[in-house]
């Protein structure tokens, strides 16, 4: 959280975190395509030739007020590939909330677990505890034939019983529900601090 007192503005950072090709960028692309132009900033995307995000996608949203101050939500994604571990850590710096985008397919469970452990370790190094931090889980790719049941994913990935959402981000299913939930958690957390 960064407060610009001159503009009475609170800048808040939400990071979409998850394994490679789980749908993090697809979430931001869908959000950007549906939000009114006056409420959003430009979508910045850095990609490789393979069409994977290298550093981040960034989208700025403006909504409502928090204790008289105008919040701006900056949405980022991290690269999911393991060899970008340092980039993920840097992008998490100063984060106010996280959307963990899990790939619902059975064969992606190990990648989900590794990335979730990575998230927890990176947050811990920044002085946060995952069980006390504003975050939600999005179980993405629910339209594919080889997805694990939600109960199984919950057992394996949601040890802190945070809010979770089923999604098909390519179609927009669950995308705004996920975003709204994480924004509400972040706002509640900020109100405690102000």
From TrEMBL:
Record flagged with keyword GTP-binding: yes
Instruction: List, alphabetically, the Gene3D superfamilies matched.
Output: P-loop containing nucleotide triphosphate hydrolases
Keyword Nucleotide-binding annotated: yes
One Pfam family of this chain: Arf
Which Gene Ontology MF annotations are present? GTP binding; GTPase activity
Print the keywords alphabetically.
GTP-binding, Nucleotide-binding
Under SUPFAM superfamilies, the record lists: P-loop containing nucleoside triphosphate hydrolases (SSF52540)
> What is this protein's record name?
MglA protein
Native species: Vecturithrix granuli
């Amino acid at each position: 959280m960064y407060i610009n007192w001159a503009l009475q503005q609170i800048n808040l950072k939400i990071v979409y975190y998850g394994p490679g090709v789980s749908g993090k960028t697809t979430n931001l692309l869908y959000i950007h395509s549906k939000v009114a132009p006056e409420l959003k900033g430009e979508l910045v995307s850095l990609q490789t030739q393979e069409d994977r995000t290298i550093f981040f996608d960034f989208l700025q949203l403006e909504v409502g007020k928090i204790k008289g101050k105008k919040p701006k939500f900056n949405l980022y994604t991290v690269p999911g590939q393991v060899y970008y571990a340092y980039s993920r850590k840097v992008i998490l710096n100063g984060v106010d909330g996280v959307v963990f985008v899990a790939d619902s397919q059975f064969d992606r469970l190990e990648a989900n677990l590794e990335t979730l452990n990575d998230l927890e370790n990176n947050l811990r190094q920044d002085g946060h505890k995952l069980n006390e931090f504003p975050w939600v889980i999005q179980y993405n790719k629910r339209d594919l034939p080889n997805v694990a049941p939600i109960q199984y994913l919950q057992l394996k990935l949601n040890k802190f019983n945070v809010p979770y959402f089923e999604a098909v981000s390519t179609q927009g299913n669950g995308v705004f529900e996920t975003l709204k939930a994480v924004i509400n958690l972040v706002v509640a957390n900020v109100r405690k601090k102000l």
